[in-house]
Structures are given as structure tokens and as C-alpha cells.
Design goal:
The protein is built from 22 helices and six strands. It has a two-stranded antiparallel ribbon. A two-stranded antiparallel ribbon has the order 2-6. The chain has a two-stranded antiparallel ribbon with strand order 4-5. A hairpin with a 5-residue loop joins strand 4 and strand 5. Helix 6 packs antiparallel against helix 7. The radius of gyration is 22 Å and the shape is globular. The relative contact order is 0.12.
Length: 486
């Protein structure tokens, strides 16, 4: 029985994700290897579409790791289960959220590896083959970046696994090995635009671009602590791309507008099975009238409510405060409660079935500017960092920072600016932890007693990483040991 369970777990990782996709099932039902499928350009285009789509599961979960676990957001009083675990910063090793996020990342990696490995011997022309490969490498790199930031060193699958024994033979790679692998993939993907024909470029909206790959590469260098390479990579974007910030914040988050500030986003449609979950999760339970086209039911689930503690950090002059709103809700026996929510995912054209097209932005130019300022500050060029943080502040309607900041003061200013700029965009935990775990603790520990739902104890040192799912550890305990403290 134990062997059967092991095989089922591995099959879920390597096979089930492909068998669930409609286009694969229609093409070769029952053929779990799909060797016949991976031949033509159309075959690989369909597979690449599924590869992009696999990012949905990562994006819908990462808010819990980065925002719910911090001072950004909380789950309302009726949310139970794993939302409570994240909200209370008490994550068990058998957490469904931990397990599903691990699986989501490796699903994207498996899709990517299948494309990269199988396209070599396909009928696809070399020019298209190179583009598809780089797109898959970007998705693989992003997935490993999420894994290494959350779990630390993880198993590195750099090719399509031929059999189950390979899975059992591959243990944890070091953090540095994972980062080196990510960087290699992104360096390759950063040249993708030069490989596209004019026709491919015209159809590339929403796909991986050189700018997206370079921006993610700069973020990887910054998170890794390789500040010199971060300065070079991010500075190249700032100085040569010609990008500018979108002046109207509502336009930035409007799913109807393809905005040049957005370098890479995960897209959704108002269609059953392709709808964004973010609108519903962002709105209070029992709220009515916030979505103009939704009149037959409550608007939200109350899963991602903004912490009142954080709302007070926005000055009245800060235009980003307008992206937060509140609703007074009669909440069962608790009386009337004021709930704060973000409008970043407020798709006003959401229909009566609450099918939303709200995108999840992974990279945008404001991020590049603030990361570049961060990298400059970390390399003792604090005076040069002002120009870039002040561009973001100017868009927000704020005055430039006072002159004469020390390196430590600029570090604090950048952490604060990123907090307000990227609230509920999947960055907060990483923005703090990359500055050092002590910095994260010193920032969040004063907040926890003021949490809207759970007055909490301080963060423990072992929580610098999340636990590896217990099911994965049990599969190969010698090669995949649990993170310390769990």
C-alpha cells in the first residue's frame, strides 16, 4: 500500500497536470505520454498556452504567503481551514496551502520541461523553436524563484523526467544551485525579442518578452544579494527601454487596458473556467453594490481584507490610498464592522456570475525603478537612488524624499515605498526578508499584536522558510529533509 501511495503522489506531479487539460484530452485521450502530440508548431503552441495557464495556481496562492502572513491583509472571521493557518502565522507541515503551492510550482516546471525537452526533435522550425524554448525557460525560472524564496533549496528537475526512479534519486539542491539555474534560464530568455519575427512580435502581447526576463533577472539578483549584477541588469532597463510610469493608477489595474508599465501579468477572461478569483477574494463578505453588474448575490468572500493597521500608513496626499476602499458590513452577531479592501482587482465589468478578468501583475516598471534604487543603495550609491524612488513617489502625488539619507535610512524608505506601491501584489514577505530575517521580524513583530483577527506572538527564527509539505518529505526523507524547526 505504501508503494502505491508513493506512485500516486509522483504520478500526480508528473502526469495528472497534463491529463487534466482539455486540449490534451481531446487530442489523445488515454495516452499519458503524448508522444504523438508533441510534433508540430500547433502542438507546442497549445502546450505553451497550457504552460502559461499553469501559472494561475501559483498566483492565486502566493498572496497567502506574502500578504496574509504579513501586515497587509487578513481573512475575515468566517474564513476557516488553511486561510486561518496563514492568517495566524501557524503553518503545519501538512497544510493544504503549502502542498498545493509546491504542486503548482512543479506543475509549471513539468510543463516547461516537457516543451524544452521534446521540441528538440520536433517538426517545429528552429526560429519558432528558440522562442518557445525561451518562453518555457522564463516560466520555469519564475516557478523555481517562488520555490526557493519560500522553501529554500528544493529538488532541481532540469529536464523531462523519463521515469519515476529519477524522482526518487533527485534530492534537494542548495539555494545557490537553484539560483544559478534560475539565472541561466533568464539570461537565455532575456534575448527572446531578437529571436521573434515581425509577425511573432505583433502577436506577443501578454507573452514573455526580453524586458520581462531582464526585470525578473534583476529581481533574482537583488533577492540573491548580487547587488552589482542587479545594478547592471536593472539599470539597462531604466536607461535604454524608454518605459514610463502610467499616470492613472486605475488604468494600471484595468483589465481592459494593455498597459506599457506592465511587463508581465497572468491574464484571465470573463468566461467560465478562465475567470480570475481575485475580485471575489478581495471584497468583503455580505457586501452588495460594489460591483455594478452583480446584484443577485454577495460580492465577496472576505478572504483578502486589508489590515486597518496598514491603511493608517498611507498619507491623505498619497494617490495610492484611493486604491483602497472600505465598506461597513453588518456581520452576523458581531455587529457592524468596517472592512477595508483593495480596488486593484475590482473588475467593474464582472458579470452576474462574478466572472472576472482581473489580471495578476507579476512585473511592472515601478518595480524596476524601486529595485534599481534598492540595488544602488546596497552598493553604496545612496545619492543616486533618489531619482528612481522619487519617480514613483511623484506618480503617487508625494514630495521627493529629503536629501542626505544614510544607507540605512534609504533602506527603510525603500521598504516603506514598496509596501505602499505593491500592497496585495505578492511581494511584501519577500521585500522584507531579502533585507535580512531580522529586518522582517523587526518590521512585523510590532504589527502582530494589532492584527485585525489574531493578536499573535513574535515570528520564530525557523520561520525564515516555510515548511516543505510533509507528503513530499515522506516520499524521500533522506534526500528531502524537512526545514529546521518544523
Amino acid at each position: 500500500m505504501n508503494n502505491i501511495k508513493k506512485y500516486l503522489s509522483i504520478i500526480f506531479l508528473l502526469v495528472l497536470i497534463t491529463s487534466c487539460e482539455d486540449f490534451l484530452e481531446r487530442t489523445h485521450p488515454g495516452d499519458l505520454t503524448y508522444n504523438k502530440f508533441y510534433k508540430t508548431t500547433e502542438d507546442f503552441q497549445a502546450s505553451l498556452t497550457a504552460c502559461y495557464r499553469s501559472l494561475w495556481s501559483q498566483c492565486s496562492a502566493i498572496i497567502y504567503f506574502t500578504d496574509i502572513m504579513t501586515d497587509n491583509a487578513w481573512c475575515d472571521f468566517y474564513v476557516t481551514g488553511d486561510g486561518v493557518n496563514f492568517n495566524s502565522c501557524n503553518i503545519p507541515t501538512n497544510s493544504s496551502g503549502i502542498k498545493s503551492f509546491w504542486g503548482a510550482c512543479y506543475s509549471s516546471i513539468t510543463y516547461s520541461n516537457m516543451i524544452i525537452s521534446r521540441i528538440v526533435n520536433s517538426e517545429v522550425p528552429q526560429s519558432i523553436r528558440d522562442v518557445f524554448t525561451d518562453e518555457a525557460k522564463f516560466i520555469r525560472a519564475y516557478s523555481y524563484f517562488n520555490l526557493v524564496r519560500i522553501y529554500g533549496g528544493v529538488p532541481k528537475y532540469d529536464h523531462e523526467l523519463a521515469n519515476l526512479n529519477e524522482v526518487y534519486d533527485i534530492g534537494r539542491s542548495s539555494v545557490d544551485e537553484i539560483y544559478d539555474f534560475i539565472i541561466s534560464d533568464l539570461i537565455d530568455a532575456s534575448d527572446i525579442d531578437s529571436k521573434r519575427s515581425a509577425e511573432q512580435t505583433a502577436k506577443a502581447k501578454g507573452k514573455v518578452t526580453s524586458l520581462a526576463a531582464k526585470a525578473l533577472l534583476g529581481k533574482v539578483y537583488l533577492q540573491k544579494g548580487d547587488y552589482n549584477n542587479a545594478v547592471t541588469t536593472l539599470g539597462d532597463i531604466v536607461n535604454t527601454s524608454g518605459l514610463e510610469l502610467e499616470e492613472n493608477l486605475e488604468n494600471l489595474y484595468d483589465p481592459e487596458i494593455f498597459n506599457d508599465e506592465v511587463l508581465f501579468a497572468v491574464n484571465y477572461e470573463r468566461v467560465s473556467g478562465q475567470s480570475s478569483p481575485f475580485t471575489v477574494r478581495s471584497l468583503p463578505r455580505y457586501s452588495r453594490g460594489i460591483l455594478p453588474n452583480v446584484t443577485t448575490s454577495d460580492n465577496g468572500s472576505g478572504e483578502w481584507m486589508i489590515e486597518p493597521y496598514t491603511v493608517t500608513k498611507f498619507s491623505s496626499e498619497d494617490k495610492r490610498k484611493a486604491m483602497l476602499d472600505s465598506a461597513d458590513i453588518v456581520f452576523g452577531g458581531l455587529g457592524t464592522i468596517k472592512f477595508y479592501y483593495t480596488k486593484k482587482y475590482l473588475d467593474v465589468n464582472t458579470n452576474a456570475d462574478i466572472q472576472s478578468a482581473s489580471d495578476f501583475i507579476i512585473l511592472r516598471y515601478a518595480d524596476v525603478l524601486l529595485m534599481y534604487a534598492d540595488a544602488l543603495n546596497q552598493t553604496d550609491k545612496t545619492a543616486d537612488a533618489y531619482e528612481y524612488i522619487d519617480q514613483v513617489r511623484d506618480r503617487a502625488g508625494l514630495d521627493p524624499l529629503p536629501s542626505g539619507f544614510s544607507k540605512a535610512q534609504m533602506n527603510d524608505a525603500l521598504a516603506d515605498e514598496r509596501h505602499k506601491e505593491f500592497i496585495m501584489e505578492g511581494d511584501r514577505w519577500f521585500d522584507l526578508s531579502y533585507r535580512g530575517f531580522d529586518y522582517l521580524k523587526n518590521t512585523l513583530n510590532p504589527f502582530y499584536p494589532n492584527s485585525a483577527r489574531f493578536p499573535l506572538a513574535k515570528i520564530d527564527d525557523h520561520e525564515v522558510l516555510y515548511p516543505i509539505p510533509s507528503d513530499e518529505v515522506n516520499l524521500k526523507p533522506d534526500l528531502l529533509p524537512q526545514n529546521p524547526g518544523y
